[in-house]
Amino acid sequence: DAKTTQPPSMDCAEGRAANLPCNHSTISGNEYVYWYRQIHSQGPQYIIHGLKNNETNEMASLIITEDRKSSTLILPHATLRDTAVYYCIVRVLSRGFNTDKLIFGTGTRLQVFP
Amino acid sequence: SAVISQKPSRDICQRGTSLTIQCQVDSQVTMMFWYRQQPGQSLTLIATANQGSEATYESGFVIDKFPISRPNLTFSTLTVSNMSPEDSSIYLCSVQLGHEQYFGPGTRLTVT
User: Which of B42, B48, B106 sits opposite A43 (nearest CB)?
Assistant: First the structure.
């Protein structure tokens, strides 16, 4: 299973862009990169996912390097409500049953300050 | 999207007892997942539960300790058996819909 590496914590000023890096050097060609976040005492929330191309939605942008060994999640204008733990996850197939499961790493604790 | 509810939201239990956690989804889903989140830690997958088949457990988790039921496409239960203080965690139910996985609010379990 591919694994991810993220910095344990980051700070960002409110209104500025938050750039959260993730390394996934052993990713396979058909594995997607997913980002989730977990605000304190809540269940994880889906943010965005991608395979090869850069992706953007109403929450964030995902930049994946050409070799797919790393990616960056960008929150363009961070707010205090974006303070959370952000998880970069590579999606795997399990036991040949063609079921996908999310394996969480340790994540990055993002603190947005005023 | 999927809306997931869990019962109970929290509980305090005595060592040696068992607790059954319920997970209800507002959509019919094939795959459901149970995770554990110990204090200050990330989420750890306990098992995958598909309707009509036995749950598949991850390394370090066994059916005798965490029996799972999946009677239909909208409901599942996880039992934490013969509890010890090390079982104090948040237990989360999750479902797969399309490319996304949705999570319930979690059940906060404290074992004394």
Answer: B106
At A70-100, the pLDDT tens digits run 999 999 999 999 999 999 998 865 544 445 7
| B92 vs B106: CA distance, rounded Å | 4
Which residues of A, range 6-45, sit inside 8 Å of B by Cβ? 32, 41-45
Three-state SS string across B53-67, please?
A: CCCEECCCCCCCCCC
Q: Check if the beta carbon of residue A39 is closer than 8 Å to that of residue A45.
A: yes
Residue A91 token pair = 């999606």
B18 CB-near residues (< 8 Å, 6+ apart) = B79, B80, B81, B82, B83
Task: Indicate left, alpha or beta for B52 from its phi (over 0: left) and psi (-120 to 50: alpha).
Answer: left
Query: Could you tell me the two tokens for A11?
Result: 């700070």
Cβ separation of A103 and B92 shorter than 8 Å?
Answer: no
Average pLDDT over residues A15-30: 93
Q: Residue A5 carries which DSSP code? A: B
